[in-house]
Amino acid sequence: MTAPAPTTSRPSSPSAPLTLIADGMREVDQVIASRLASGVPLVGQISHYIIAAGGKRLRPALLLMVCGALGYQNSLRFSLAAVVEFIHTATLLHDDVVDDSTLRRGRPTANETFGNPASVLVGDFLYSRAFQMMVEAGQMRIMQILAEATNIIAEGEVLQLMNMHDASLDEEGYLLVIRSKTAKLFEASARLGAVLAGSPADVEDACATYGQALGTAFQIIDDVLDYDGDATELGKNLGDDLREGKATLPLIIAMQRASASDAALVRQAIENGSTDQLETIANIVRQTGALVAAREAAASEARRAIAALGALPANEYSANLLQLAAQLLDRRT
């Protein structure tokens, strides 16, 4: 079975390929709203605050898209898509505390609004609620996939923490972090769609490969936009990665290609977590071609994702999965 070729005209917004599952995503939103209920008012208040902020919701959407491609229409997919979003939201709450972030999706982070202790504890609530819901699914394989994903994400978070202010981090180390921290939940979401559909092992693995590659490309582009984006459109502060001392791919490539003095400037900024020279460093990243090289690395991952779709039936859902990977490379927000 072969996935269809991409069309010549690509949509300009990541939401365009997802219009096919718009009704399904509304069902997911209803599940999310109903399962956020808690006898502790602050739990619901913070949970609603961060989930209501919106976002691309790519992980639950990916699960629904794969289910559609493989012909699975049971309502269990809505519950598991909500589980995926709860896990993702919990990681955001914890991330923003660890990173001391103040802005997400164009408004103050939950920790900025409610404080660090409340954000951490509500993140814990969302994790535990997600596990309650996956138990209700009654399938050990589902629990295994999501438990493993959650554990690897946590390891990725710790690994990233260990790498903070380490200007010697190479591309391999960088990819290890983002494939654990970001791409793993994309991978699990796509794999779950195949598991729900009762797909054979080769199809399940192909879906997981698609999700991992898509998630890796997504994070690389996200890191590019920290030096090549618009803060208003992105909904976050430019230079946040540098302020946090993160050696992301654009900086790693720039240090490899820059003059000794420019490389030393970038290295010092990472080690000190300083954005005093942000404009100069952004120019170094651009002038060395690091942004172009990083986008090509993302393109390579997108091509890997597209190749994996060959294991899926050719239908409107697999066509939209292909478009999602293809247009990710044009992402500007």
UniProtKB/TrEMBL annotation:
<keyword id="KW-0479">Metal-binding</keyword>
<keyword id="KW-0460">Magnesium</keyword>
<dbReference type="GO" id="GO:0008299">
    <property type="term" value="P:isoprenoid biosynthetic process"/>
</dbReference>
<dbReference type="GO" id="GO:0046872">
    <property type="term" value="F:metal ion binding"/>
</dbReference>
<dbReference type="GO" id="GO:0106350">
    <property type="term" value="F:all-trans-octaprenyl-diphosphate synthase activity"/>
</dbReference>
<dbReference type="InterPro" id="IPR033749">
    <property type="entry name" value="Polyprenyl_synt_CS"/>
</dbReference>
<comment type="similarity">
    <text>Belongs to the FPP/GGPP synthase family.</text>
</comment>
<dbReference type="InterPro" id="IPR000092">
    <property type="entry name" value="Polyprenyl_synt"/>
</dbReference>
<dbReference type="Pfam" id="PF00348">
    <property type="entry name" value="polyprenyl_synt"/>
</dbReference>
<comment type="function">
    <text>Supplies octaprenyl diphosphate, the precursor for the side chain of the isoprenoid quinones ubiquinone and menaquinone.</text>
</comment>
<keyword id="KW-0808">Transferase</keyword>
<dbReference type="InterPro" id="IPR008949">
    <property type="entry name" value="Isoprenoid_synthase_dom_sf"/>
</dbReference>
<protein>
    <recommendedName>
        <fullName>Octaprenyl diphosphate synthase</fullName>
        <ecNumber>2.5.1.90</ecNumber>
    </recommendedName>
</protein>
